[in-house]
Amino acid sequence: TTVPTQGRTSPGATASSSQAFRLNVVNVSGETGAAASIADQLETKGYVIDSVAPDLERSADRTVIVATPDARAAAQTLSQELGGVLVSLTEATTTATVTVFVGKDQPQLQ
Length: 110
Description:
Layout (H helix, E strand, L loop, with lengths): L4 E4 L13 E6 L6 H11 L4 E6 L9 E4 L4 H10 L4 E4 L7 E6 L8
Parallel strand pairs: 2-3, 2-6, 4-5
Antiparallel strand pairs: 1-3, 4-6
């Protein structure tokens, strides 16, 4: 059983004070460790990860980024860093949020 990790930070992370959005990574690939692998890569780029978790109810072939409208620019930047992953906008919330749903394609940071 995988337990979601909350508030992950790495010693070299520099985005913590300037990252104006919550970043979540969810594994929908069906392969153990896929979300953790992407989260680790993002942390080395300076992103602060709020949570990493599996979604055992869903399965997806392709990775998708879902973001609130106020986090659109961050989601588009992240998409480019992940090789052009599709970005989808969701309804606005009180907190700017970007969620990476890691699919079976498991993109690598560019």
